[in-house]
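Data deposition worksheet. Section B asks for the primary sequence of the deposited chain exactly as it was used as input, without tags or linkers unless they were present during the calculation. Section C holds the resulting structure in token form. Section D is free text for depositor observations; keep each observation to a single sentence. Incomplete worksheets are returned to the depositor.
Section A, Depositor: J.P.
Section B:
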Amino acid sequence: MAKQKKPLYDPETGIHRAKIWEIALYALNNSSTNIYAMAFMYVTYFLTGFCGVGVVLAGTITTIMRIWDGVTDPFVGMMVDKTNTKFGKNRPFIVIGNVILFVTSGIIFHVTPNLPMAARFPFYIVMYMLYIIGYTCQCVVTKSAQSCLTNDPEQRPYFAIFDSIYNTVIFSVLPLYVTGTLMPKHGGAAAFTEPAFFQDLWLFCAALSAVCAVAAIAGLWRKDRLEFFGTGKVQKIGFKDYVDVISHNRAIQMLVVNASTDKLASSMMSNSVIMVMLYGIICGDYNQYGLMSAATSLPIVIGGILVIKFIASKMGQKTGMLVGTYACMICFGAMFLLFLLGNPKTLDIGMTNGLNFFTAAFVVLWVVGRSFNAMSGNLVIPMTADCADYEVYRTGKYVPGLMGTLFSFVDKLISSLAGTFVSLMLAGIGFTTVQPTQDTPYSAGIFWVTMACFVGAPMIGWICNIVAMHFYPLTKEFMAEIQEKVAEIKRQAQTENV
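Section C:
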């Protein structure tokens, strides 16, 4: 017998669902902002090369700007919670945010290098602060719109599936584009000193981000309406409501701890300088970075889909988070031993000299580890929607903007330290004025700094994840109870409006 298709709305349970293609398109909003974030991973090279900024200061400035990013979050979140237009609550912020990102980033990479040296750094700071406002506007929607798109516990992990697919593609295509196209075009290792390199990177990323933003708007079109919001009616949200959420919503408190520590660790692990040191210096060939990304992207996508589908969707998002975290710890611990005891110089993704043990082991551990990381890392966003529903259950207040921005505020404050930590460690081994490049000679200091960022920092973040999830209250069973209560609140609101 064929499996009966679930209705888009069940009045008895209050469960409203999205079409799978709507979730798929909506998830591209996160991709749209991640593309810009990926491009700005190279900004320390831009600052040291064109603005006359030292390595430590470049990393510190990145940290300060991320703090400013966090400061803008509550204000944008409050605007989202108060917004209810014919164009919806969330879609206007996607448009506004992406336009600001396009304009400000274009000005940064095209205008800054042509200014007098003394004016470059102040000009960059001002434009980047404006850039952050656009980034915040669009990012908030990634979290806030989750609750109106679907409240089906089995559907919400689908966002993580599509987000995992897109992130894997992005973090594979962009490094491959940089190492395989842009760097050869602009002089190899000297590319990071060429303004045209950053301008070409901007054009590629800006166009791709805009396409993703338009797709996300289309995905939200049907559901970004009042009847799908948490209480089904317009609410007045004040500052005291925000204070109450911060003080008493245990779910969002623990999710913030989980996500912020994980983000700090992952930002250090994927830092562009760390990738140069890992592949270019320790392994001896930076081109292996692009090849690795290309070769493992599809297996990671498939692995991520499978673990999210059969663990998070069936057992609940909290369980999925824990399973993914433990698996990541095992895989990355094994990778550290591989680099410590094996010979990284034999890494040969293209297998020009045949398959060897180091290459095979690294690829397998990377694919398995990243597949489970796709689950633990990407579940954070749909879990934010669970926290918003919990707040409706707890107080009757629907504050998805606050949930998204509170999460982002602390997340950005903590994760912003990644650039500073990396820069300080580099300075500790002698890199105070210039960044390491693929031509930098190997040293023990480079090895241990790379391992500290690539393995050590994620391990600390994952331990924090486990502790936070121990106190996270939203199990699969409790979420079913929450949705019944939210449905009752909506029915009461509809009765009052009749």
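Section D:
The two ends are 41 Å apart (CA to CA).
Residues 156-185 form the longest helix (30 residues).
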